[in-house]
């Protein structure tokens, strides 16, 4: 099953940016994100994201 960018953003609600990939994953875990969302975050490139739009751009097409 695939997830949507909306679900990913819901899991990252309240995230403080800039944030590294590991920070995104930790935040999503704390907010009980589903396994599909976690899979998307784990597949993101390992760099710093300036804002939620950066995460959405990387996620687009997956």
From TrEMBL:
An example of a Pfam family matching this protein is: DUF2795
Source species, domain of life: Archaea
The record's listing under InterPro entries reads: DUF2795 (IPR021527)
Q: What is this protein called?
A: DUF2795 domain-containing protein
- Species per Swiss-Prot/TrEMBL record: Methanosarcina mazei Tuc01
Phylogenetic lineage: Archaea, Methanobacteriati, Methanobacteriota, Stenosarchaea group, Methanomicrobia
